[in-house]
Design a protein that fits this description.
66% of the residues lie in helices and 13% in strands. Strands 3-2-1-4-5 form a 5-stranded antiparallel β-sheet, with no helix packed on it. By secondary structure, it is α+β, with helices and mostly antiparallel strands.
Length: 428
């Protein structure tokens, strides 16, 4: 019975990992999550009292333009615009309405005739308001996404397709599972660790295959991102920070009927943001260990571990810079404000938004640094014994084949000598 179950499990694993079966399976699971999540998580959302909808509309004609260059940003026109627009979708499709369009620096939906934009239709005390909500930016995003997918497929081929599936699965986990769980009031820490663990396993199987090298990278990545999350939460609380200081952190607590555990959102944020960089480091160390082992089977596990860590030191500098520069880029305007206002160190370093950005950047970098020795240590035990034994068996097999070949080669002239002696005796 146990043998049959084991055989069935092996058959299932072989079927899933063959060709594109696993990628197709993950795609179906992701699509199922996107399909089921809205109906299961609607109860966690707050019900808005506003009656509004967003539709596409086209500018039919410009009625008036009262515009002037902004005093601070001359490239932006501010003022008021009035135009007629045709609603292109929804219950009022085909209807032509007049839109009052005030333009400021922040809200600047300047349109021309025949432009397509996003219109907001809102009911306010029995009156219908038509407003130019935003430019239609989705077209640019879709074209850019298509270019990204084509580049991945043209250069990566099968690996590129697996990368796309992995991104799709990541989006499904975050949007359909993690976010609804947080809004439902659950503790996000164990949920995030579990989801990121699943993400790590699926990603490495898709990209690197089902092997010991991938298992080693999985363990190193999970330990690294958990370490980064712990550092972020520990030093964040030491600095009297919490998820309430994250961007829109205070706003989200008002859009849910449940009590959101904002305290732990720092842990969640750093685990999600640092995962990509930590995964790169982990697979690099595991691959380096594996390649060195195959190239020189005489190296001991300790030598391989030290060599992998030396390679990791080179990776560490670039990846740490990558993560810190990513956080710096996202906080560029804040840094400009600090410089422009000539804030003293005591003032700006104790500002919550600055402190939070620094702690996040340092916590992610700590995760990268710790991933290197952790992955190398795991490789020593996960790749060392198993691979060395397989190499020894391969070496023994090669030696046995060589011995057999040599024996057959040496026996051939002996047989020829015997035949010659027999012929001589018969002639006599």
């Amino acid at each position: 019975m146990l043998k049959d179950n084991l055989f069935t499990t092996r058959q299932l694993k072989s079927f899933l990992l063959k060709d594109y079966h696993f990628a197709i399976f993950i795609t179906l699971v992701s699509s199922l999550l996107f399909y089921l999540s809205p109906s299961l998580s609607d109860s966690f959302k707050s019900q808005s009292s506003l009656e509004q909808s967003f539709v596409e509309a086209r500018v039919v004609s410009i009625v008036s333009n009262e515009l002037a260059p902004d005093a601070r940003v001359p490239s932006i026109l501010t003022g008021k615009q009035v135009f007629n627009a045709e609603i292109l979708e929804g219950p009022e499709a085909g209807k032509i309405v007049q839109v009052q369009n005030p333009l400021s620096r922040q809200h600047n939906v300047l349109v021309e005739q025949d432009d397509v934009f996003i219109m907001m239709i809102r009911q306010n005390h029995g009156e219908t308001i038509y407003w130019a909500y935003n430019h239609k930016r989705s077209t640019a995003i879709y074209w850019m996404g298509l270019a990204f997918i084509l580049l991945l497929l043209s250069f990566g081929r099968k690996e590129g397709l697996n990368s796309i599936v992995s991104l799709y699965f990541t989006a499904a986990l975050i949007i359909c599972v993690l976010i609804p769980s947080i809004f439902a009031g659950y503790n996000p820490v164990p949920i995030t660790i579990a989801l990121m663990g699943i993400k790590i396993v699926v990603n490495f199987i898709l990209v690197s295959g089902y092997n010991r090298k991938s298992f080693c990278a999985m363990g190193g990545t999970l330990l690294g991102v958990v370490a980064a999350g712990i550092m972020s939460q520990l030093f964040g609380e030491f600095a009297h920070l919490s998820g309430i200081y994250l961007d829109k952190g205070e706003d989200v607590i008002y859009i849910s009927d449940q009590i959101i555990q904002v305290r732990w959102l720092m842990f969640v944020a750093i685990m999600v943001s640092a995962l990509g960089a930590v995964m790169d480091v982990a697979i690099s160390i595991a691959s380096a260990y594996n390649e060195l082992q195959v190239t020189d089977p005489k190296l001991t596990p300790n030598q391989l571990m030290r060599a992998s860590m030396n390679i990791g030191r080179d990776i560490m500098g670039t990846m740490t810079n990558t993560l810190i520069l990513a956080f710096a880029g996202s906080s560029l305007t804040t840094i400009m404000m600090v410089w422009g206002l000539d804030m003293p160190l005591t003032q700006f370093i104790n500002t919550p938004v600055i402190s939070l950005a620094i702690i996040h950047a340092l916590a992610g970098s700590v995760g990268i640094v710790l991933t290197i020795p952790l992955t190398a240590w795991l490789a020593k035990y996960m790749l060392g014994a198993a691979e060395s034994s397989s190499l020894e068996s391969l070496s023994e097999t090669s030696e046995l084949n060589a011995a057999v070949t040599e024996s057959r080669t040496s026996e051939k002239p002996r047989a020829q000598d015997c035949e010659a002696l027999t012929a001589q005796s018969l002639n006599r």
